[in-house]
Amino acid sequence: MPRTKAPETWGRSTVRTACPLDCPDSCTVDVTVENGRIVKMDGGDANPVTRNYICGKVRRFPERVYGEDRLLYPAIRQGAKGQGTFTRVTWDEALDHIAARMLEIREAHTAEAILPFCYGGSNGLLTQDTNDAVLFRGFRTSRLARTVCAAPTGAANQALYGKMPGVTYHDYPHARLIVLWGVNPGASGIHLMPFLKEARAAGAKLVVIDPRATSLARQADLHLAIQPGADLPLALAIHRHLFENRHTDEAFLAQHTTGAESLRARAAEWTFERAADVSGVDAALIRQFAELYAASTPALVRCGWGLERNRNGGSAAAAILALPAVGGKFGVRGGGFSMSNSSAWGIKAAAWMDETPEPDTRLVNMNHLGRALTEYDSPPVKMLFVYNCNPLATMPDQNRVLQGLQRDDLFTVVYEQVVTDTCRYADVLLPATTFVENYDIARGYGPISLQLVQRVIEPVGEARPNAEVFSALAERLGVGQAEEETDTLLRVLSKLPPDVSAELSASGIATPPYNGVPVQFVDVFPLTPDRKVHLFPDFLDKSAPAGMYGYQPDPATPDYPLALISPASEKTVSSTLGELRERAAVLQMNPADAEARGLSTDDPVRVFNALGEVHCPMAINKDIRPGTVTLPKGLWRKSTYNGLTSNALVPDTLTDLGGGACFNDARVQVASLGRH
After folding, report:
1. Which of 98, 142, 242, 344 could hold 448 in an S-S bridge, CB 3.0 to 4.6 Å?
2. Which residues lie across from 411 on neighbouring strands?
3. In 3-state terms, what secondary structure has residue 202?
């Protein structure tokens, strides 16, 4: 069973836990504690994929736990939003104040004027969709469509395969061809790297599709430096080649799929030459990739999330995920596709909340937060409750989000670990525990893993875990009962399969299904109702703006010709740990684009479009394709000269499927700022 308190406060000990942060790997972590304080975090050996090492981000995590930005006690704002100070109060005072305001707002505007806002600060099963769901469902607030990431890929995967588990890291060495499409494991998901190295040593070919020449792209047999947003035409050109040259498994298509002919028809117009015109990749290189994929077995496509963040993201993901079905790549170890394996355990999100059904209240797409705060009026958003999220750093249309947060009539609660950009516009601040101070259940979505997150130290200051805070509020509002975090944990454990729950309680890690290495169409099959791959889902064809697999043109204009993308960073997990960045973020630009604008490395520049502008230094980087510039994902406002990040330049338009964010559809111009 889990501990009911942290280790003894005197002496030195090592505690095994797991990392629930938003990363595929879900590492086992060994935490060394001395006199009640963390002195070291390192990799543990319980998760066989971890292999006794963790990323540099989590090694630095004690700097968040004990840093000067740590929130230590509840506080209420005094003075103007963004400029005022916060006065310390007790937890009872803070929770009573929040509960009173929620009741007032419900009386004046209905509870739908309250918007809970959360996403991915932790992917654990305990810190989200448990007691918070009891509170907000029971009070009948507005609902949040959590679509800022993985919505288009998730919609595609669900429609085609029902989220069938994919190839896991241990089986990569069996592949003879590995395609990394829109993913850079060197920055996120680093535990894939040794398996890629092993596969390469065994003779596997590597293809990387990325606008940047990443470290892996430079080592690859083929690197396709694609124009952001053009993954769909490239994938359809591969399909056309497979269909027209009889590189398909017709028996498999007949037995296990529907919609193959419709997909064939949509792909027919995408010759190598036409795809080259749109994608910026040479037609001969596309042909070489298509022929290599057709000829290779086992062939594995690792579908990432970078390719979804544009207007064509859902159809692009569907076309990529359809390749192994059309190309006959299933049924062998190391063949098929790999994306998210979070569904492998059969655990439904919030399955333990069945007693509190989701109401039919207003649904707000989180990518429209800016317009929700500034435009919605039936009812207006009068209260924003932020947790597990830093929306001012992560949502599109940053200037409009900022405008909304500055509203004097908006009551904002931010429940956080450290003082984020969003915290500065709060009315009430609540201190949250980090994963080393609370319990959780971490579910990997790269490897198939499920681990218990142990409380390693007592909470710093007056920080409290999510389960206790939300249940305390639910009790005050008459929609639930207050409970200890361990009671919530035991309740969640009781809803898991008995053998899984027993293993987690006894050893902290559960044995994965299929021994963690399922073979697609041998051990696992589509989880669609008819157990077939739906290559052309009719309901998606009707909902997509240009139809299923319909390409929407690039949004560049003569005024704003450059594609701005925000790749994952080695320094942060989304925006988590952004407080530790000490230097200004640097815009990366191809030499030809810099020369055309008279720019040199270290020049201060303004990156701008009709939505706003960002001031920062720039650097010339030959690894960035012409016509594309980059700023890191997850920046905080302090990391630029003018306190705005790339999100200030991102439209709040939505992807074709799933209602996702179009971060990579930002089109900008860059000019000299003069010496800063």
Report:
1. 344
2. 383
3. coil
Helix and strand numbers, DSSP H then E, in the chain: 21, 26
Torsion of CA 337, 341, 344, 349, to 10 degrees: -140
Strands 205-209, 177-181: parallel, antiparallel or unpaired by DSSP?
Answer: parallel
CATH 2.60.120.260 fits 75-148+347-445+458-513, yes or no: no
Task: Specify whether the CB–CB gap between 62 and 228 falls below 8 A.
Answer: no
- 283 backbone dihedrals φ, ψ, rounded to 5°: -60, -35
Of all residues in the chain, the percent with pLDDT exceeding 70 is: 97
Alpha carbon distance 382, 420 (integer Å): 21
Q: Could you report how far apart the first and last alpha carbons of the chain are, in Å?
A: 57
Q: Print burial letters for 429-468: b (CB count within 10 Å at least 16), e (below 16).
A: bbbbbbbbbbbbbbbbbbbbbbbbbbbbbebbeebbbbbb
Side-chain half-sphere CA neighbours of 482 within 13 A: 10
- Domain residue ranges in the chain: 75-148+347-445+458-513, 152-339+518-536, 562-672
The secondary structure of 103-128 as a DSSP string is HHHHHHH-GGGEEEE--SS---SSSS
CA distance 228 to 624: 12
Write down the pLDDT at residue 357: 83
8 pLDDT higher than 70? no
Q: What pLDDT does residue 347 have?
A: 83
Average pLDDT over residues 196-223: 97
Per-position DSSP letters for 439-467, written without gaps between them: -EEEE-SSS--EEEE---SPPSTT-B-HH
DSSP 270: -
Number of Cβ within a 10 Å radius of residue 354: 9
At 361-386, the pLDDT tens digits run 999 999 999 999 999 999 999 999 99
Contacts of 177 (CB under 8 A, 6+ apart): 204, 205, 206, 207, 292, 293, 296, 298, 299, 300
Specify the pLDDT at position 343: 87
Look over the chain and give the mean of its residue pLDDT values, rounded to a whole number.
95
Contact predicate 520/330, CB 8 Å: yes
* φ, ψ (nearest 5 deg) of residue 594: -65, -45
pLDDT at residue 52, rounded to an integer? 86
What are the Cα distances from residue 477, in Å, to 51, 98, 242, 467?
47, 10, 59, 16
Predicted pLDDT at 355: 67
Do 75-148+347-445+458-513 and 152-339+518-536 agree at the fold level? no
Residue 666, token pair as written in the block: 């930002």
Give pLDDT tens digits for 114-136. Answer: 999 999 777 789 999 999 999 99
Confidence (pTM): 0.96
Under the banding of pLDDT at 50, 70 and 90, the label for residue 353 is low
Q: Which two tokens stand for residue 329?
A: 């790549």
Q: Return the CATH superfamily for domain 152-339+518-536.
A: Dimethylsulfoxide Reductase, domain 2 (3.40.228.10)
Domain 562-672 in this protein, CATH class? mainly beta
> What 3-state DSSP class applies to 50?
coil
Q: Which two tokens stand for residue 466?
A: 């999510």
Q: Helical H runs in 168-312?
A: 193-201, 215-219, 231-244, 250-256, 260-267, 272-279, 283-295
Contact 230, 554 (CB under 8 A): yes
User: What is the per-residue pLDDT across 546-596, written as a single tens digit (0 to 9) for each?
Assistant: 999 999 999 999 999 999 999 988 888 889 999 999 899 999 999 999 999
For 524, which DSSP code?
B
- 499-507 long-range contacts, CB within 8 A, separation 24+: 500/345, 500/450, 504/441, 504/450, 504/451, 504/452, 505/1, 505/2, 505/452, 507/46
Cα 191 from Cα 98, distance rounded (Å): 42
